[in-house]
Design goal:
- It is a single chain.
- By secondary structure, the protein is mainly alpha-helical.
- It has helices at residues 3-11, 14-22, 25-38, 43-67, 71-78, 80-113, 119-167, 182-193, 201-216, 222-251, 262-277, 282-315, 325-343, 348-361, 363-375, 387-410.
- It starts with a helix and ends with a helix.
Length: 411
Amino acid sequence: MKKNEKSFLNSLGPGLLFAGAAIGVSHLVQSTKAGAEFGFGLLWALLLVHLFKYPFFQFGPRYAAATGETLLDGYQKLGKGILVAYYILNFATMFTIQAAVTIVTAGLASQLFGFTNDLVIWSSILMFTSILFLVGGKYKWLDFLMKYIIIILTISTIIAVCVALFSTKDAFDVTQILPSGSVELTFLIAFLGWMPAPLDVSIWHSIWSVEKDKTTLIKTKRKDAIFDFNVGYVGTLCLGICFVLLGALVMYKTGEKFSNQGGVFASQLINLYTENLGQFFYIFIAIAAFTTMFSTTITTLDASPRAMNKATALLRGKGKEYKYGYWFWILFLFVGTFLILKFFMGNMGTLVKIATILSFLTAPFYAILNSLLIFGKHTPKKHRPGIYLKFLSIIGILFLIAFSIWFLTSI
């Protein structure tokens, strides 16, 4: 790899961790299903949600670069009650989110490596391996791994889409669809909830940004932090479109439905690629899909404990976190996720729907908080966004509130 290429990769960090956390269930599962069930009809939703969520995700690294603090530090300044509300929401959803991403990863691992079809066993192996990885390398290894995983996934996905586009003989129907009925509407809200990611991932991003500065001993400039974020965000958008296209080109109007069972779904997902690229590419595609979901498993296993440890320290009234608090929350998350997978495996589809819908319904909460923080007195004036981003954030908040009200009054 050339020196300037290495320099470019080294300049990236939290933005690709954001992409690694985002490109998971929302892309491999939700986007592919959107294409399979609605064809190109939900591209409008994909584009709009990326546009209107953009400011609130960007405010995470912007605030960290401006203040050297995480969004959680900012939330405390806005009021302790806000921090308590976040604490409760995160605690209520982190186990289900971890279970959702881990079970898909386990299904892919079962398809790729064999060994056993027991997804609970595979989930335990994957989470334990992730913990060892985080213990050994902490942020540094996580940052290094993500760069190459995203490159592999991007290349393999673009190739698959290009081949699918050239192989199809059907005329493209790009008519956009507004879902109706409780089932379709529930899917739309779930799709929007985790696309490209839940808004509380902006908090994770701010934590990773602060952690990067601690690791590298270099204070990241606002311009560099936003560039890093933009690279990751545009990547999530492009890959989201790719997965919608794959679902539409290969499965739309075929009568085939994606299974809710992890192992079966993993097999169907890999076949989306191999049907277009040929059996020769099976291993390559399977590894790419697996490493993508494995990266999501690792990033969520890292981020939620960091957030809970930080929030706990702030609620205790002490800036310093417990020495082993991070590891306590990782083990706690591991045990809670294992229990969900062990005893509620049959209800995983329902649990994931609840988690994704809750993510969307709480999006206005995080959007308003991030806006109050970035445009308020706690952010130095020179680091506050301009008029265009302020206008977009206002429109974004109205969009999220309007869709939430529409959903609640339509189900």
